[in-house]
Fold:
Amino acid sequence: MSFLFSIGEMAKLFHLNIRTLRYYDELGILRPEHVNPETNYRYYSTNQFERLNTIKYLRALDVPLEQIAGFLEEKEVATILSIFEEQREHVRDKQKQLALIEKKIANRIEQIESALSAPYGQIAVKHIPQRRVVVLEQRFSPSDDLEPLIRDLSKAHALDDALFLGKVGISISQEDLERRQYNRYSAVFVVVEAEDGVEEAGTILPEGTYISVLFQGTHEEAAPNYDSLLDYLQASGYLIGGNSVEITIIDAGMTSDTGEFVTELQIPVIQKGPNTNLP
Structure:
């Protein structure tokens, strides 16, 4: 019996866990050459080395065990070629998914680093490209819990909850901004980026000029910052061009310290006349 290897020896030779070999036995893709009827110990022979090498090679290519079992039942070149072609498409799909994940990570890093390094309370005039958002129109106050509204938004549009980190916004209507009434919001929305894989739907926030300010704090602390924006708007010859965009970039999903929250307010603007000097 010297030509036989115990399950432990086989595991060491092929750098596998003993549990893996037992599992292969259960699946029927690698049965022991001999099982001692008294001790139930499993023994393997050199005749099984090629089969195990094939299994390890195909698993390294991420081929499912079910497919491997089917191939081992009837080994043919056409079958292995079909497996390779299928795995190549699988790998290409994974590469696309990983590229999207990398893009999402890069976006969040850029967003957070920008929020951490920005001068808080400093008003800026910026040109912002169009953005696609999914909106739930609902009246609520700054002190209301946003989570039920976010869940309603997610449910209404069948959105993946993973979309919401750092991308949820709320809005004050143009009418309320003109009245400087900041005690009620008109909508909650989520910004949808190309890599989110959401079907073309929702609302477009138009490309245009916005005045914006970042501050440390939550939505409940937005009112004085809205006043600063509107004072700047009036002094600079602008008119309000639409509803506000208010996004907490660093929120409870990233930190439990509300003092570390960073919120950005944006108001779309238009010029009063052609002779107005831009700041």
